[in-house]
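In response to the reviewer comment on reproducibility (Comment 2.3), we provide here a single inverse folding case reported in full, input and output, so that an independent group could reproduce the run without further information from us. The structure tokens appear first.
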């Protein structure tokens, strides 16, 4: 099938969809406003300007790309931007995949945004979401009776795999999330300051607007020697740090799916996360990890302490977590689900 993806060319998720679809024999091209090193035919789009004043220029660019590539299907990822462009370009058949903030945050900003969201989703031939939670949020903006199919992101379980030998030395706690308020890294720092066990150290992988405030919070809590803000790191480095860790923690205030959580489980780590959004779907509470209430540093500290105090139990949780990912969240599972959606648009 000839498929034109309309998506962020710099996203690791876009790269994986391109690669997996091409590996299945599909002819894939990419329309994007972000420079991409992906080895597929690409159609550049101009960046959307503040106020959307150049929106119709981008729509014309996308129409030209569709006319040149002549796809059998257009698949737009992230509805509030690429999905809207594809809908306005009257792409048919059109699959639109929502990712999270595009339906959880974008429509809260204005009535106009809510109307644009309904327009984009209403013109789609099929709509997918990465979690049942996100699908439920999306259905509020769909025409009555229109389904939203759950197709999760896949995890590369060959790359995200357990280390050859269990890590030794001080227990390492890892959190790989953007340093933004939604992801609750400040709650993690608060929780770490409450731990009675002082044998651990922590590595927080990611960057964002909260970096200065978190640096000050870590210093104020006297944790500078044990909590490191490593900034944005390469994907290979993320795997290395997860493989060196004892557990991974995700204290999000908002989370539409939880792919980082699944990657940690694929490495064989017990995970601790908050009971918000799509996270309860990707963690078996008490089996592959622990779920706690958001914005509750005391509960988070208790859960971390429980795992640190029981390394044998933690490893058992990690083993079950990898099995959980391998049966439900591999790229083979995700790709098969998406191809079923594609086939439904050809009928």
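Designed residues, in position order:
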């Amino acid at each position: 099938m000839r498929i034109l993806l309309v998506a962020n060319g710099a996203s690791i998720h876009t790269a994986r969809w391109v690669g997996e679809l091409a590996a299945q024999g599909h002819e894939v091209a990419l329309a994007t406003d972000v420079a991409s090193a992906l080895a597929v035919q690409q159609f550049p789009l101009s960046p959307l300007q503040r106020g959307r004043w150049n929106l119709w220029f981008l729509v014309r660019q996308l129409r030209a790309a569709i006319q040149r590539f002549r796809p059998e299907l257009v698949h737009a990822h992230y509805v509030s931007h690429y999905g809207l462009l594809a809908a306005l370009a009257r792409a048919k058949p059109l699959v639109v995949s929502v990712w999270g903030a595009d339906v959880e945050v974008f429509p809260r900003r204005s009535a106009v945004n809510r109307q644009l969201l309904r327009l984009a989703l209403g013109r789609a031939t099929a709509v997918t979401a990465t979690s049942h939670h996100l699908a439920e949020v999306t259905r509020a903006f769909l025409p009555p009776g229109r389904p939203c199919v759950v197709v999760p992101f896949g995890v590369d379980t060959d790359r995200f795999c357990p280390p050859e030998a269990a890590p030794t030395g001080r227990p390492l706690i890892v959190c790989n999330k953007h340093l933004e308020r939604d992801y609750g890294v400040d709650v993690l720092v608060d929780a770490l300051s409450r731990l009675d066990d002082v044998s651990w150290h922590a590595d927080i992988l990611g960057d964002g607007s909260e970096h200065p405030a978190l640096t000050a919070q870590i210093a104020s809590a006297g944790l500078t020697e044990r909590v490191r803000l490593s900034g944005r790191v390469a994907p290979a480095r993320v795997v290395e740090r997860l493989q060196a860790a004892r557990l991974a923690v995700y204290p999000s205030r908002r989370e539409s799916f939880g792919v980082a959580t699944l990657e940690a489980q694929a490495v064989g780590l017990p995970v601790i996360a908050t009971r918000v959004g799509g996270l309860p779907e990707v963690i078996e509470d008490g089996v592959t990890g622990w779920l706690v209430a958001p914005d509750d540093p005391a509960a988070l500290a208790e859960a971390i302490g429980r795992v640190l105090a029981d390394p044998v139990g933690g490893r058992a949780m990690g083993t079950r977590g990898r099995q959980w990912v391998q049966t439900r969240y591999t790229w083979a599972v995700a790709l098969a689900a998406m191809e079923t959606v594609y086939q439904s648009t050809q009928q």
